[in-house]
Amino acid sequence: MVDIRGVSKRFGQVQALDDVTFSVRPGEVFGFVGSNGAGKTTTMRIVLGVLSADAGEVLWQGRPVDADVRRRIGYMPEERGLYPKMKVGEQLTYLARLHGLPAGEARAAVERWTTLLDVGHRMGDEVQKLSLGNQQRVQLAAALVHDPEVLVLDEPFSGLDPTAVEVMSGVLRRKADAGVPVIFSSHQLELVERLCDRIGIIAGGRMVAVGSVAELRERDGTAAYEVLGPPEGWAADVPGVVAVEGTRVRLAPGTDDQQVLKAALAAGPVHEFRRWRPPLTELYRDVVASGSAVPA
């Protein structure tokens, strides 16, 4: 378990983080989303110990993150953190050795991860001669080569083509299935929705929601239905309907949807009646706008 508890950070007059609290469980892929400047990278750097918090703490397995714990973390920064003129294989082996792997184990780990990430054929090339997508794959290999117990990735899918996205998604799920907590930030909300077990939304340095997509959809206890066919205004006086948004109706908690369907049929022909499950893009917009929270 990775626990971020009450973390705050100020840069001059700017409150970058304000009492940020959430956890990432073993074997969980946790998506960390927010607009530019919301506090995602600052949070990750505090988790890594690159920055110190003004208040709060970060714990791994119940103990503070110190130098020993940091060696067990695989970190992928948003900015390229590789030596551009160094060859891929030499660089990854060097980084693995820095993490304490013996020479033979380091070479074997480099071969395994570069093969899995489909850059094994570029081992003898300088990093600067790779495409941006392949540089991103090498950057991920650098985060994985020492077999980390925690993965922290800042925008790992940025600039990748769909094939590379699928390869990297598979690698992250594979690590999570092995029990590794995985946290990554991304602006690609469709990908976050598909890949993540839980999601944290940060806005203005504050966590405004934490939970699964299903929990975010049910944050106010209401349920929305798409109803096509009945004339406009059919739901105005239907018991349990608390809002009408075009062809969608929102029902109060505990409302019998079959009674609502009967009311729709009484008003006119019903061509479609189905539960509306908004995508993460819409949930994100609504949560940030409302500032409502789902507890961690």
Describe the 3D structure.
InterPro entries: AAA+_ATPase, ABC_transporter-like_ATP-bd, ABC_transporter-like_CS, DrrA1/2-like_C, P-loop_NTPase. Belongs to the ABC transporter superfamily. About 35% of the residues lie in helices and about 25% in strands. With about 300 residues, the chain is α/β, with parallel strands linked by helices. It has two domains: about 210 residues, P-loop containing nucleotide triphosphate hydrolases (Rossmann fold); about 60 residues, Alpha-Beta Plaits. The chain has a six-stranded mixed β-sheet, sandwiched between helices. It has a four-stranded antiparallel β-sheet with strand order 2-1-4-5, with helices on one face. The chain starts with a strand and ends in a 6-residue tail after the last helix.
What are the main properties of this structure?
alpha/beta, 34% helix, Rossmann fold, Alpha-Beta Plaits, 4-stranded antiparallel beta sheet, single chain, 6-stranded mixed beta sheet, 296 residues, 14 strands, 10 helices
As a percent range, the share of helical residues equals 25-40%
Number of domains: 2
Biggest sheet strand order reads 6-7-8-3-9-10
**Mean pLDDT across residues:** 91
Which CATH architecture of the largest domain? 3-Layer(aba) Sandwich
The description of the largest β-sheet is: 6 strands, mixed
Task: Report strand %.
Answer: 25-35%
Q: Tell me, briefly, the overall form.
A: elongated
CATH homologous superfamily (4th level) name of the largest domain: P-loop containing nucleotide triphosphate hydrolases
H/E element order? EEEHEEHEHHHEHEHEEHEEEHEH
CATH class of the largest domain: Alpha Beta
Q: Report the C-alpha radius of gyration, rounded.
A: 23 Å
Which regions contain 5 or more consecutive residues with pLDDT less than 50?
Answer: none
CATH topology label of the largest domain: Rossmann fold
Number of strands: 14
The CA-CA distance between the termini, in Å, is 13 Å
Provide a count of the helices: 10
Broad structural category: alpha/beta
